[in-house]
Known about the structure:
The protein is mainly alpha-helical. The protein folds into two domains: about 1-70; about 80-120, H-NS DNA Binding Protein. Helices cover about 55% and strands about 5% of the residues. It is built from three helices and two strands, in the order H-H-E-E-H. Strands 1-2 form a two-stranded antiparallel sheet. Strand 1 and strand 2 (about 90-95) form a beta hairpin. It is elongated. The model has no long low-confidence stretch (mean pLDDT about 90).
Amino acid sequence: AQARECTLETLEEMLEKLEVVVNERREEESAAAAEVEERTRKLQQYREMLIADGIDPNELLNSLAAVKSGTKAKRAQRPAKYSYVDENGETKTWTGQGRTPAVIKKAMDEQGKSLDDFLIKQ
């Protein structure tokens, strides 16, 4: 509706700009399709090479997955650094890592104790 009110010169200018944008979009989409096609061709080529060498692609994927999942190293457990008696009268230990146990925090806040009071003497 608004296009009828524009001058012919303005409409032709808009048409040129629109054609440029459409052509650029077509080029981008064809380039993306070519990349996908090339990747698919390469994957098929590698698959054929594996089969020619007597390797099942699924076997390769399974072995890679097994290697990936087994590579996470475990951190050594830290020795206990503090000892305290909980509400049930049980002696517990704390490494000093993570949140401060509620019993220790309460003793520090209300009784004025320090962490050194809970240190395990060795």
